[in-house]
Amino acid sequence: MLIDYHIHTKLCKHAVGEPEEYVEQAIKMGFVEIGFSDHNPMPGDYDPENRMIVSQFPEYLDMVCELQKKYSGIDIKLGVEVDYFPKYVDYVKKFVDENRFDYVFGSIHFLDSWGIDNEKYIDEFKNRNIDEAYKEYFRTIKNAAETKIFDIIAHFDVIKKFGYKPENGYLDLAVEALEAIKKNDLCLEVNTSGLRKTAGEVYPNDEILQTACDLEIPITIGSDSHCPSEVGWHFIETIEKLKMMGFKNICRFSGRERSFVPL
Ligand SMILES: [Zn+2]
Ligand SMILES: [Zn+2]
Fold first, then answer.
1. End-to-end distance of the chain based on CA atoms, in angstroms?
2. Are 195 and 178 spatial neighbours (Cβ–Cβ below 8 Å)?
3. Can you tell me whether residue 163 is helix, strand or coil?
4. Residue 7, SS3?
């Protein structure tokens, strides 16, 4: 069953195209369900150039609501991609509780002030010990999973986006974060946008996906589309791979209730 839960809108200031174009692309490709999951607003001093501002949030809600009315042939969910950032935990918890989302992604885009998946900060990889950076990143994912604010952990190993990776792999650095996802009954996103980046592979990598499968961690799938042509990016081959690994189901969400459908 074709579902794409990770679609952005131009409100985040780094996506292009009208929201209708994303929906129409999804319909054309045979999707039965999609979800918008734009970056959540944050108090002013945090990353304002990559997200809607607080006062634009009603516009986001209206936009998704209008699309739901306009397109009856496809189920359109209201999601959100929320940054886990320790100093804003209370803010985002309140934000998530106050709104009627279908699902909430938890993402790490920053380690302190270092935007790990932002080209502007790419040189920082040359200043860091890569193993230590990965260790800190996965520790942050573990902390995010333990907050219980989120339904799905997004792009689990996005720190590899620009191709900087520990020489000997990183499953051992990631395993505690995976276990925290399992223990807190969260879902793991299989995010195909890594195939469009230097990383050249899905987030997370095969070794981590296989471990997630063995741990029976539920998954869902997202393209992280920032333009309409990216909807469903390489989903067919990715779904085939997931089936080969042993995954049988994929998660859907409605009003933050999870259900499963066969892959
Ligand atoms: Zn993200
Ligand atoms: Zn995203």
1. 6
2. no
3. coil
4. strand
Compute the distance from residue 47 Cα to the ligand 2 centre, in Å: 14
Distance 36 CA to ligand 2 centre (A): 10
Task: State pLDDT tens for residues 184-220.
Answer: 999 999 999 999 999 999 999 999 999 999 999 999 9
pTM: 0.97
Q: How far apart are CA 171 and CA 81, in angstroms?
A: 25
Name the residue with higher pLDDT: 46 or 6.
6
Quote the ligand 2 centre to 205 CA distance (angstroms): 17
Sign of the four-CA dihedral 93, 14, 257, 201: negative
**What ligand has the least distance to the C-alpha of 14?**
2
pLDDT at position 147 is 96
User: What b-and-e string marks burial along 113-144, b requiring 16 or more CB atoms within 10 Å of the CB?
Assistant: ebbbbbeeebebbeeeebeebbbbbbebbbeb
User: Is the pLDDT assigned to residue 45 strictly greater than 80?
Assistant: no
CA distance 140 to 133: 11
